[in-house]
């Protein structure tokens, strides 16, 4: 699904820009990321890092005056303006892995988890830097 489809299908609400919400979500995302990033590779680490990225997505959306409950749409908002296509597609794959863990009990190898956490960590730090710049922090 692309961002325009998210809007057309009513999966996104237009709201007033909310800098305070963005700051709060940035702080929560940073705390969550710091908690999980150096833990031993398990599905919980993968989920935790993913959730931290989604919190940053919601912070960026709030800063731009949007709200969505759809992880797919939150990720899609980042395309081109914040992340390149490879990074967005990686996040969609990570979203699906998290979904398989959470709802289908899927277990991934330590190597897959560590490889995904490494890439996700780079994306997290990139988004955090961009968000802090936009918030002028």
Please tell me about this protein's structure.
With 137 residues, this protein is mainly α. The chain has one domain (3-135): Up-down Bundle (Four Helix Bundle (Hemerythrin (Met), subunit A)), CATH 1.20.120.330. It has helices at residues 3-8, 19-36, 43-63, 71-77, 85-104, 110-135; strands at residues 12-14, 66-68. Strands 1-2 form a two-stranded antiparallel ribbon. The protein is globular and about 40 Å long. The chain starts with a helix and ends with a helix.
Write the layout of secondary structure elements.
Layout (H helix, E strand, L loop, with lengths): L2 H6 L3 E3 L4 H18 L6 H21 L2 E3 L2 H7 L7 H20 L5 H26 L2
Antiparallel strand pairs: 1-2
Contiguous runs where pLDDT drops below 50 for at least 5 residues = none
Number of spatially distinct domains: 1
Instruction: Give the CATH topology.
Output: Four Helix Bundle (Hemerythrin (Met), subunit A)
Strand coverage percent: under 5%
């Amino acid at each position: 699904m692309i961002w325009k489809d998210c809007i057309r299908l009513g999966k996104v609400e237009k709201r007033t820009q909310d800098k305070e919400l963005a700051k709060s979500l940035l702080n929560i995302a940073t705390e969550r990321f710091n908690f999980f990033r150096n833990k031993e590779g398990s599905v919980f680490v993968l989920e935790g890092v993913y959730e931290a990225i989604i919190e940053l997505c919601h912070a960026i959306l709030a800063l731009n005056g949007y709200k969505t409950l759809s992880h797919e749409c939150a990720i899609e908002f980042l395309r081109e303006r914040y992340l390149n296509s490879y990074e967005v597609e990686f996040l969609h794959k990570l979203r699906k892995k998290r979904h398989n863990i959470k709802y289908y009990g899927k277990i991934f190898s330590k190597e897959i988890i560590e490889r995904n956490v490494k890439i996700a960590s780079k994306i997290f730090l990139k988004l955090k830097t961009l968000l802090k710049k936009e918030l002028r922090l």
